[in-house]
Write a structure and sequence with these properties.
It is built from eight helices and two strands. By secondary structure, the chain is mainly alpha-helical.
Length: 214
Amino acid sequence: MLPPAATDPMALKITCPSCACRYAVIGAAYFCPACGHSAAEQVFEQTIAGIKATLGALDQVRAAMPDRDTAETTVRVVIENGLQNAVTAFQRVVEALFVELPAPPKARRNAFQNLAEGSTLWQQATGQGYGAHLDAPSLDQLARAFQQRHLLAHRQGLVDEEYIAKSGDTRYQPGQRLVLRSEGVTEAVELVERLVAGLRDDASSARSGQRSSP
């Protein structure tokens, strides 16, 4: 719960393209509360916009809460939720794009939470992996963000040896807790946007090629 002075600028207002229901959320929305409609690409755009608005309102969150400790705890939760929502939004939109590709290979559940596995599946289906859209340092940075999301979702942010090995993030020791900055989450969100834009182009080209085949 946040005070109205903080929630107002963070609210994302959405109109459902299926039933025209109007609703507002903070952070992310994955389906219409009235009819359950999910338009993956539209939802992705709205979710990313919501994350950016939320991160941009952190000063207002701090100013609206008189207790400094409570304010900083709330800001930490908002930042961490932003990263988790960005990864989930990426997963959902890529899953939707993937199943519309011509003869996509079988993918396990939640495969697109893993960048390396998702890139391999995407290359099998389209001939191009994620490296066609992000350079190696950017992919490494995004992979670290995905690993951080995993820690937040499954270990309450506590670092383990698996995280260090998979992410290459040697700033932490096992047992320490992640400390995320809004700037880092913003960069991860921007990388997600760039990657999804490239994957959309891949999917469009694949579908066009299928239609033009004899």
